[in-house]
Amino acid sequence: MFDLTTKPVSAGELMKKEKRPIKFVVDKFISQGVHFLAGHPKAGKSWLSLWLALCVANGNDLWGFKTNKSKVLYFCLEDSENRIQDRLEGMPGSETDNLLFMYDAPNMDNGFDAFLKKIVKEEPEIKLVIVDTFQLIRGEKFSGNAYACEYAEMKYLKKLAKELDITILLVHHLRKAHDSSPQNMISGSNALAGGADTTFVLYTFPKRKGYGILYCKGRDTTVREIELRFGFGTHIWDKISDSVEDSEGMKMVEIMTTLLDESGPFSGTATELCQLIKEVCDLEFTAPILGKKLADNKEFLKDFKINYESVRDMHQRTQKLWFDPDRIKNDSAEENSDTESNSGTEFDDKTAEVDEDNTAVNFETDAEADKEFIPFKMKIQM
């Protein structure tokens, strides 16, 4: 019950108080509080959650971010014990005793808070709790309109996280409809994203197997976009680049896509390539710097069906750039499809198959989203 004797605090009094440091389970990235990790079905959210859990449980860095080693409680409510064993096999640090699993839990109608308090009391070193998925702990007692109901759910969970001094990460889904902001695609009303301390949206692309972008937006972390590649052998999402640190790969994809769309395949010296980029993209490079950028991002460009070679003969070094024939064929097919019908692009279910043990990831996302979301990265200026 609210204390009616509570008095307001003046700005002067507030500024005299010592500022409390923000607590993080992943330094400058995931703070104490309630957070969402959202993505389309079979996008690799659970793999990412498991990797995060192992990093925190072992005190290992996550994409260069320091973690505060602690126990982790993982509610894997959609998975069996066998499936979790299969997923853990081969992952670094998988034999740790700091990662605890629960395969069932009461929902918020039936004592989820009391259940979690009991576990944390027995295991006080728990600082990160992952709920996979959020939908399975939601009850029906928060009745009313959608916004009011979901606001009450967030208030319930934030109070619980504060009382137990823990971080709660809720794994959730995205709606099918696209939006100019990835955070607006989180399933539900704005109360969920608005009430969370951070939202992480894992967006994957059906035409780029194993590639994704993690859109991060929160109160205690810098807004950033992290390019990721999924290792089908390691089952780990590895960082390609971070928009806060660098976005070199996507910059080069944007430049070379524009160049090849406008001028076709290129073969010439680095100086001639610099001149063409200046004409087409209004960007200036020196030949040595451009050569290094292309060499550093050769494999990344290949992920987007852009081929690059640097060949030296007796007279000069020749730079070659061209689209992969598969990309040209796919682009032509899409143009023909758009001409014949306005119904949009069908879902691509065959990008990466999933077996019964979930040992691979199926990036089952609307292909139209490629056009919708790539520009977020492209808009970053040189």
Task: Write up this protein.
By secondary structure, this protein is α/β, with parallel strands linked by helices. It has two domains: 22-242, P-loop containing nucleotide triphosphate hydrolases (Rossmann fold, 3-Layer(aba) Sandwich), CATH 3.40.50.300; 248-325, Arc Repressor Mutant, subunit A (Orthogonal Bundle), CATH 1.10.10. The protein has twelve helices and 14 strands. The chain has helices spanning 11-16, 45-58, 81-88, 112-122, 146-164, 190-195, 248-263, 270-281, 287-296, 298-303, 325-340, 369-378, and strands at residues 24-26, 30-31, 33-39, 71-76, 99-102, 126-132, 167-173, 198-204, 211-218, 224-231, 236-242, 266-268, 306-312, 317-323. The strands form three sheets. A nine-stranded mixed sheet has the order 5-4-6-7-3-8-9-10-11. It has a three-stranded antiparallel sheet with strand order 12-14-13. Strands 1-2 form a two-stranded antiparallel ribbon. Strand 10 and strand 11 (236-242) form a beta hairpin. Helix 8 packs across helix 9 (287-296). The chain starts with 10 loop residues before the first helix and ends with a helix. The model is unreliable at 337-382 (pLDDT under 50).
Describe the secondary-structure layout.
Layout: H1 11-16, E1 24-26, E2 30-31, E3 33-39, H2 45-58, E4 71-76, H3 81-88, E5 99-102, H4 112-122, E6 126-132, H5 146-164, E7 167-173, H6 190-195, E8 198-204, E9 211-218, E10 224-231, E11 236-242, H7 248-263, E12 266-268, H8 270-281, H9 287-296, H10 298-303, E13 306-312, E14 317-323, H11 325-340, H12 369-378
Parallel strand pairs: 3-7, 3-8, 4-5, 4-6, 6-7
Antiparallel strand pairs: 1-2, 8-9, 9-10, 10-11, 12-14, 13-14
